[in-house]
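ingest -> validate -> predict -> emit
validate: passed (alphabet ok, no gaps, 296 aa)
predict: started
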Amino acid sequence: MLGRLNQAMEHIEEHLDRRIEIHDLARIAWTSEYHFRRMFSALAGIPLAEYIRRRRLTVAGAEVLAGERTLLEIAVRYGYTSGEAFARAFRAVHGVGPGEARRNGARLQSQPRMSFRLIVEGSSSMRYKIVEKEAFRVVGKKARVPLVHEGMNPHIVEFIKGIDKGLIARLEELSDQEPRGIVGVSDNLADSRAEGTELDYHHAVVTSAEGPQGLEGVDSLAVPAGTWAVFENAGTLPVALQGLWRDVFTQWFPSNPYRSRPGPEILRVQVLGEGTGAAGVGAHAEAELWIPVERA
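emit:
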């Protein structure tokens, strides 16, 4: 998988002055467009589109300083429809406009070329199972919140605090299959997984019940039948849980014949002790992370 991914990275380098299509990159990597975006952002730490933009402006910056082409020629070569659009993008990356950079020989920022390799330490293993699951519903309260990569998500914390405890008890009565009990469900995430992009967060249960069963003010999400990879982990909140998602995409997927597919991600957490901070920070917990997958 990583070898094919590096071939896709080479394709990016060869086409910085042309249109780069995500379906071409996914084809080279022998995977889906959806999984390619997810894998790239997990491994690189930045969205694919942002990496391509930075690489283009890095190479364009070298041409600006070389002075062999006009600024408009450089702008058009790297896909900008006007000198003004190129200047804005150039300044956003380099902190200086292209004209000033050429006149004064400014120091520019550089986005290095990326390649990927798998480091195998052998000191730990991931516990997982593959589950074929019939169609089900996610029933509970939903909020649109920004994505937070590190630490507790304060938007989710405040959202959960505002849910009536009686409603939560009634929802728990609807839980009739794995993962059981109240779960956190993330859906409609941006492909880039960039910090601050929004997602639908459901504080809900997984059930075979049709709809909200008379409960007022709750949302229902229908999930079709499919294959799920279920990962288990234990550790302190929230570091261990956020590390689990990272390890799934940077270690498990490159080493196994599966790829992610569109669908909600489900996290079940059982807190086993009290934390030292707000919202359970530092508490010891066990978790199950359910990721929708398909054979690669």
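The longest helix spans residues 48-66.
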